[in-house]
Structure formats: C-alpha cells, structure tokens
Design a protein that fits this description.
Helix content is 42%, strand content 12%. Strand 7 (248-252), helix 13 and strand 8 (274-277) form a beta-alpha-beta unit. The strands form two sheets. Strands 6, 7, 8, 9, 10, 11, 12 and 13 form an eight-stranded mixed beta sheet that branches. It has a five-stranded mixed beta sheet with strand order 2-3-4-1-5. The protein is globular and about 75 Å long. The relative contact order is 0.08. It has 17 helices and 13 strands. With 469 residues, it is an alpha/beta fold.
C-alpha cells in the first residue's frame, strides 16, 4: 500500500505546483521510480473520468475514515477499474475500495455513454500535438565517452544517421549544439544501457542553450563557475562536460529533496569537478573566499514553465488556466533578484539567465530591469552581442518588449511547435571593460614611461657629477 501513498503524494505535489511531472518523478527513490511513475502518468491520463466516477459513487463521503484524500482515491480507483486490481494486501483501505467496486464500474459505464465513447482508452487525455514535432534529444556525456563513440554505438544497434523523422530508427546530429543527437520522438531511452550508466543525458535542445552560451573555461584547472539553481542536474552536468571536468563548479540547490536528486545525477554522470552545495544562492556572500572567484554564473531560476509542451506535462493542461499576472510579477521579482545578486560577484565576467517561459514578464522585462539596475551600472554589465549568443538561431527576443532598444537581437527565444524544442528564453550578460580601459591604459603607459625615463635621469645625473668632479 505504500506504493499507492507514494503515487498520491506525487499528485499532491503536482497540485501544489511544486514542479513538472518529470521533475517531481525524478526525486523519487530510483528502486521504485518506474512503477510509481507509470501509475502517476496513467492516473493523470484518466483523471477527469476517474474524478467524475469517484464523485458520482460518493466514495469519499462514505469511506472518509479510510480514504481521506482524492489523490489516494484516484490511484486506487485507477487500478481497480483500468488495471489488474489493487496490488496490495487485503487491508482496510483496499477493502473500502472493493466495497464500492460494483458502483464504481457502473458509474464508469455511465460516463462513457455520456461522453459518447465505447472504450476505456477513449477516455484518456490525448497528448499535445506540438510534442510530436519535438525530437527525442540525447546529449552525449563527453565526460564518459565521445560523440563519435556514441554514434558508432547506436549505428551498430541498427540506428541510421538519417534524421529523427526519417524512420523509427533514424537520428541526426544537431546543427547548433555540439554533442547533441536527435532521435525519433516515439523512442524511449529509460532502459537504454547508455542512459542507465550516465553516458547519455535526456535533455531538450533548448535546455542545452544555457550552458553552451555561458561557454565556461575548458580544461582550466583554475576555472571557477557557479550554477545557481542546479537541480535536477542536467545543465550542471553539461557545464561540467564543457569544462572538461576541470576547475571547480559550485552547484547550489536550496531544497533538500532536490539536492539529493542533484547529487545522484552528478555521481551518475561522473562530474568530478562539481561541488554540490545545499544552500540558497541568494544567501551566498559574493565576497566569500571560494565563491568570489567565480567568473561565469548560470542562472536558470524558477519560472512559470509556460514554454513546456513535453510528452508528460500536457496531462496537467486541463487544470492550467491563464497564468495570473500577480504570479508572473512575483516570479519576475525573484528572477531579477537572482541576476542582481550574481552581478555582485567581484570576478564574474559572464552571466547567463534563462527560463522555460514564453512570457515577456519573465524574459524581456526582467532583462530590461536588470540592465537599468544599479548593480549592472556599477559593475558595467551589458548584453553580449548576437555573434556571441547562438548567432545562427533565427528567433530572437521581442523588440516591442524591450522599450524600443536594439537589445532584443542579443536575446534568444524558442517557440514550442515551431522550433523543434520546448519554449525557452536565453540571455547573456557580460562585464564591459571598455569603460575602465581608457583610464587604466594611460596610467600604465605613463608608469612604464616613467620607469624607462628614471634610469636615464639617474644616468644623466651621474654624468653631470662626473663633469663637476
């Protein structure tokens, strides 16, 4: 019965909007994750019908002492009506459900008639059509093997390098992100040996943009990089690979449960240069002896997730209304705080800020406010030019949301259903040095000239003394 409690708790967390389906399932213990994930996903597919069945049967009213949660009732009724029965011993909770089995079946039949369907399968919620246009992206973990080795491995297993939509066994090499392969959307990799051993990472293409644009120092033992919001660890492992597993990468995660997931992910991906820190990035002192040395910071903070149209989260769409402006403003306030805090680190040269949101409130507006902040002005931060931020990517920021400036061209946007990715936004701040150079170069030049002239003066003086003598 613990299995059902675990599944109902996942549903509780989804109701509380604690994260995406994939993200929350990733926090479950690995030994029971697949079984729980399957029940959660199947229950969500039929949630609308199952909720009507439970309400019509008055199950929660008549069995409130045994079953005090709608989500617990959902997973139990799912297995009673749509699977092979409740997989648990004959305890009081199972008996409570079985007492109503005939009534539950009857109500399910009434709902099928009412909705004009003949089979149980027709009651399931259909997927987002846009997800079918997104390849199954696989990032090669170059900390463990090379892309060439990965391609050879898959071609030996019958896959063909002909593009992800050419056939069920087709795959291709991404044109924008190195070490990223694109497979047919219908493929599953959960049982793939390379996935299980950490040699490949299942990561959407747009999600790979953040680390790639940050472009941390590679193979530099003195490099110091920060991932400010690291869990579950996809972007962290990408940064680690780009660094050649050298230097130091500090990965911050404030939530204890997500921190545990992060550590498992980093161990699986053989990220030897990462130090995971269970702390809120906003509480970190920029002058801290270790962290103040960071030159590159990745910011991918909490957002509305409005750009996600993957193969699971469509199951929540029937409950998602238009995102309230108040919630977006609160998120934007937090996101701006993260950027301004990152700008306080004395040695930081590059900051990448990204979201999986399509809303300008969390994207262009946050960037505009950040550029106008005292932190940006005091530390001379500006947006990197397009040439340094995926220059060949066509979809850029929304100019109308940037108050008429030309900065929109420095920003990257991904549109779900059109770009072969989930919705995403990427920006890159760099520290401007030109405002300092005009003052420092002449000083250095004058100092050098003075040092060169000093011996001459001393020499002349010595000669003069000789003449006097």
């Amino acid at each position: 019965m613990n299995f059902y409690f675990e599944a109902s708790e996942v549903l509780n967390r989804l109701d509380a909007k604690e994260g995406s389906i994939k993200g929350i399932l990733a926090t479950l213990p690995e030994n029971n994750r697949s079984r729980t994930a399957a029940l959660v996903i199947e229950t969500l597919k039929y949630k609308s019908a199952l909720s009507d069945v439970i309400q019509a049967s008055k199950l929660l009213t008549e069995e409130k002492k045994k079953i005090n949660s709608l989500n617990l009732a959902l997973v139990l009724v799912h297995d009673t009506l749509l699977a092979n029965g409740i997989q648990a011993g004959d305890g009081p909770i199972k008996q409570a459900i079985l007492r109503h089995k005939t009534r539950l079946k009857s109500e399910l039949q009434r709902i099928k008639i009412k909705r004009g369907v003949k089979s149980d399968l027709e009651l399931a919620q259909t997927s987002d059509d846009r997800a079918a246009k997104i390849p199954r992206y696989v990032r090669v973990n170059t900390s463990m093997w090379s892309t060439e080795e990965a391609i050879l491995s898959y071609t030996k297993r019958g896959f063909q390098l002909q593009g992800p939509f050419a056939s069920s066994k087709g795959f291709g090499i991404d044109e924008h992100i190195p070490d990223l392969l694109a497979f047919n959307p219908a493929l599953q990799f959960r049982d793939d040996p390379s996935y299980k051993t950490g040699k490949i990472i299942l990561q959407d293409k747009a999600s790979c943009f953040s680390a790639f644009v940050l472009s941390p120092p590679c193979n530099d033992p003195n490099a110091v990089v920060i991932d400010a919001t690291a869990a579950p660890g996809n972007k962290t492992s990408h940064l680690s690979a780009l660094m050649g597993n050298k230097g130091k990468l500090y990965a911050f995660e404030r939530d204890k449960r997500r921190f545990s997931t992060l550590k498992m992910m980093l161990a699986k991906a053989a990220c030897r240069n990462v130090e995971a820190v269970n702390a809120d990035f906003l509480t970190i002192d920029p002058s801290h002896p270790k962290y103040s040395l960071a030159t590159h910071i990745l910011l991918d903070p909490s957002c509305s997730g409005s750009g996600i149209v993957n193969r699971l989260d469509y199951l929540l769409e029937d409950e998602i209304e238009a995102v309230e402006e108040d919630r977006l403003n609160k998120l934007a306030t937090f996101q701006l705080m993260m950027i301004k805090h990152a700008m306080k680190f004395p040695h930081v040269q590059k900051i990448v800020y990204s979201t999986c949101s399509i809303h300008a409130t969390e994207n262009e507006h946050v960037i505009s406010h950040a550029l106008q902040s005292d932190e940006a002005k005091d530390s001379h931060f500006k947006l990197a030019l397009r040439n340094d931020v995926l220059p060949t990517w066509n979809r850029r920021g929304q100019a109308e949301e940037m108050k008429g400036t030309s900065d929109a061209d420095s920003l990257v946007r991904c549109s779900p259903g059109e770009d072969g990715t989930n919705g995403f936004f990427v920006s890159c701040f760099i520290r401007e040095h030109l405002s300092v150079l005009p003052r420092t170069e002449p000083l250095k030049k004058r100092k050098a000239e003075t040092e060169e002239a000093a011996p001459e003066k001393r020499k002349k003086k010595r000669k003069k003394k000789v003449k006097i003598e």
